[in-house]
TrEMBL record, chains A, B:
PANTHER family: HTH-TYPE TRANSCRIPTIONAL REPRESSOR PURR-RELATED (PTHR30146:SF148), LACI-RELATED TRANSCRIPTIONAL REPRESSOR (PTHR30146). Residues 326-351 have a biased composition (Low complexity). This is Substrate-binding domain-containing protein. It comes from the Bacteria.
Length: 376, 376
DNA sequence: TTGTAGGCGTTATCAT
DNA sequence: ATGATAACGCCTACAA
């Protein structure tokens, strides 16, 4: 196509990249390009520039709305830098995650954000060794020299426990995820610590463990209800909470009158449920956004020192844990109508400002992905 | 590193790809590779092979569980061929989608699956012109020479209407998505046709339109309830249906006793709701799987004629539309306990068999993404 | 301003 | 079986 324009290949390249060129050359190149339908080859460009314009995200379960929220936030940042997001779901398996991390050496992406629910030395080794930047969302050993955005789910659990106790609940059940996961362990510790802080002994019959899925939550809650008699249920995430809600309603318990219910992650699911679920926000969108920003900064400058950021949890109180009005009639209406969403957790994420990809693709505006204009 | 091994660069390449080589050479190369920590560069390989090993998927809303299901199915197939999936969310915007399709000329992926809710001539032009294979999930003009997997949501709507009428419902409300979308238009037409088929006149007050989201469904249902008096509600997807459920319960209507509820897409959400929602399965997982298979076949052989596949809808009947037992007491228990999930829509998707990527990456097993071992 | 030439890291072809 | 060499498509000194 350079030939077609009657100019050198170099001139053509320059024109296409908007670098110099006489008016005449520019015209000829443009014409020839249009004529031939020339489009630059992304691969060749990557080989030359040593960048792919891709950023990867590895999460355990793409169906969990908490990761959807995180993904959206990440994608917004990534897209605003002219890059694209590649999503992996690992099923929470260590082998799958470490394989992914090692594959980074192939340089098929410019960076990776990973949110493991189990963290092993293999993870850390792979990350430290990796030639491409990695940011971890989640708890990490204190001395790990790795960019990291975390929250404190122990405190989050405490918020929920305090709230339930303040509302007069006495027997708080706890439906957790696997204890051999980082969040599972943290939430277990948080739950016990929170009770201890109020001088309340832990009743093991009020604690149940499954995985972080809906079905497990439903089943675990069913077991718990069968053997204990909680007046509140705290669940380690919203999927579990929705499962627990199903179990409660199936058993004929009223929520929140008989049993108050609180989830964690404060996802869309919490607001979709009926009654709407109180939920501990762990700032997943914020963590995602910050992680993406950290990653882009590191891509721009690999020599930055390792950074560690914290996002504070907060509690969104909704109908599922608000004491019912003592209305005696009308047994049909399941829940008191409270002004939903007191919104301690509603934040407007400001438009992020991050280092853009050095050579933004010329020509038409890059299509966003994952989030842009989400509402049809 | 070839130098380090004391062999030519070509020999090294051969050994690394497992092609021939004397025992001695192999040993030397392996040793040197380990020593230097050599990892093949994915970009350079792509430049040479003219393949990236990436397949893209473009959907409107990554938070809609129907796309999550589709994505999982696609990802399983894609991963089994040694490729990776790149997910884009377009927000259902035509501009965003066509931009994506045009970008295919950059060859940053080996193929794309797109599931547009609005299809324009621009889409078709871009697809036909595209140098990389594209498969469309969704309705398409009959003469479009494009690989295509579709379902018949008109028939799907009819299944639901027949079911509700058979259950003795008289006034079926319909909460639809935008009429200027392909699925919105099809479902509207299907609803009217189904009623007509039973000789029932259409009452426009029983039809409400929003978008395909939860909030819109809730609001639209609220409006509909305020002005009409349905004994059943059919919703254009499960997100809308869950929104409608929220509206119904908020208004104090019992489901299904006062109002039966049926969604569409038969997503996880339908089973998470309480009561569980009947839902029209449009075979999203199957469509996804077939689309991925078609795409891989076409990547393997670009000269295939355009293919068109159909996936039949079916109805999953659950508690939300099953006539309540005439129990007169106990007004608290919201729903009859029916053996949930008669599962006309439960299918075991057999492990797909598809053309694998010609040169599978040597070395460690490729990590799957998006779906593998989803349950932690 | 323009053209020539080298290289990004691989694989493939062709002699040897 | 091995080694030199030419692509793959692009960018970028460097020279003209």
């Amino acid at each position: 196509m350079a030939a077609r324009a009657g100019v050198s290949i170099a001139s053509a390249s320059r024109v296409l990249n908007g670098i110099g060129g006489s008016a005449e050359t520019v015209r000829k190149v443009r014409a020839a390009a249009a004529e031939v339908g020339y489009v630059p080859n992304a691969i060749a460009r990557s080989l030359q520039s040593q960048r792919t314009g891709l950023v990867a995200l590895a999460v355990a379960d793409i169906g969990n709305p908490v990761y959807v929220a995180m993904m959206r936030a990440i994608e917004a940042v990534v897209a605003s830098s002219g890059r694209q997001l590649l999503v992996h779901a690992t099923g929470g398996e260590v082998a799958s995650e470490t394989a992914l991390l090692r594959r980074l050496a192939n340089r098929y992406v410019d960076g990776m954000i990973v949110s493991p629910i189990r963290i092993t030395d293999e993870h850390l080794d792979a990350i430290v060794v990796s030639p491409v930047p990695v940011v971890v969302v989640g708890q990490l050993p204190d001395d790990a020299p790795v960019d990291n955005v975390r929250t404190d789910s122990r405190t989050g659990v405490a918020l929920a426990v305090d709230h339930l106790l303040a509302a007069g609940r006495q027997r708080i059940g706890f439906v957790n995820g696997p204890l051999d996961t980082v969040p599972g362990a943290a939430r277990d510790a948080g739950f016990r610590a929170a009770l201890a802080g109020h001088g309340i002994p832990v009743d093991e019959r009020l604690i149940e463990v499954g995985d972080f899925q809906y079905a497990a939550g439903r089943d675990a809650a069913t077991r718990l209800l069968a053997r204990a008699d909680p007046d509140a249920l705290l669940c380690a995430n919203d999927l579990i909470a929705v499962g627990a809600l199903h179990a409660l309603l199936t058993e004929g318990r009223r929520v929140p009158q008989d049993v108050a219910l609180v989830g964690m992650d404060d996802t869309e699911l919490a607001q979709m449920a009926f009654p709407q679920l109180s939920s501990v926000s762990l700032g997943s969108a914020t963590r995602g956004r910050r992680a993406a920003e950290l990653l882009l900064e590191r891509i721009a400058d690999p020599d930055l020192p390792p950074r560690r950021e914290h996002v504070a949890p907060s509690l969104a109180v909704r109908a599922s844990s608000i004491p019912a009005v003592p209305a005696s009639g009308v047994p049909a209406a399941p829940a008191s109508s409270v002004p939903a969403d007191p919104a301690p957790s509603v934040r407007a994420d400001p438009a992020p400002s991050v280092p853009a990809v050095p050579a933004p693709a010329p020509g038409s505006r890059a299509p966003r992905s994952l989030t842009e204009g989400r509402r049809a």
